């Protein structure tokens, strides 16, 4: 596959002006390099979305700023709209191919666990990526996590169990849990959970009730008014 190239343009819009920029079909972008100054740029929202969907956070792309020569870069940080999932801002790190960088590589679950599909357990995967340091060209698209070895509830996979190619240094702690299978809850546990569910009154209701009772008591203790 040919390397993805993303065209970037200089921008003057800042802060609240970026809302107008987005409505015109562009997304604010910032590029920076190690020891270099950050540049405020913009990209076609359509082209930016396409480039990110193909490259993710660890694949080298080419960025062409205005009429300058194309540079190698990776997506370093992307902000998504919580409702639509659209990209609202992107940071791109320009890189040298002979200089190591830190990046997050996603974990991809492969295989099937008999503890899940036969014993009705629940697969637990607390990590979706790990941090590594490597030359940009050595970054893999993902690390595969083969869960077929999880054939009972006692086994688990940790970062130290991942197959990592030479030249890549894993920065995430080796004992971090990657995957395990929890056993299904017993009837006793489900009953215990049901018993823990209580009728919780909205905050302030109890206080108001208490104040009301206190007021009624005070009123009853007042002497009757003279006619």
Task: Please describe what this structure looks like.
The structure is a single chain. The chain is an alpha+beta fold and 227 residues long. The chain has five helices and 13 strands. The protein has a six-stranded mixed barrel with strand order 1-3-2-6-5-4. It is globular. The relative contact order is 0.11. Residues 217-227 have low confidence and may be disordered.
Look at the structure and give the mean pLDDT.
85
CATH topology of the largest domain: Ribosomal Protein L25, Chain P
Number of strands: 13
Q: Strand order within the widest sheet?
A: 1-3-2-6-5-4
Helix content: 10-25%
What is the global morphology?
globular
CATH homologous superfamily assignment of the largest domain: Ribosomal Protein L25, Chain P
- CATH classification class of the largest domain: Mainly Beta
Low-confidence stretches: 217-227
Major beta sheet summary: 6 strands, mixed, barrel
Structural class: alpha+beta
Total count of helical runs of at least 4 residues:
5
The rounded Rg comes to 28 Å
Keywords:
single chain, 227 residues, alpha+beta, RNA Polymerase Alpha Subunit, Chain A, domain 2, 2 domains, 22% helix, globular
Describe, in short, the structure shown.
The chain contains 5 helices and 13 strands. It is of the alpha+beta class and 227 residues long. Strand 5 and strand 6 form a beta hairpin.
What order do the helices and strands come in, and which of them pair?
Blueprint lengths: L4 E6 L6 H7 L2 E7 L6 E6 H11 L5 E5 L5 E10 L6 E8 L6 E10 L3 H4 L4 E3 L4 E6 L8 E4 L9 E3 L10 E2 L6 E6 L4 H10 L8 H17 L6
Parallel strand pairs: 1-4, 2-6, 7-10
Antiparallel strand pairs: 1-3, 2-3, 4-5, 5-6, 7-9, 8-13, 9-12, 11-13
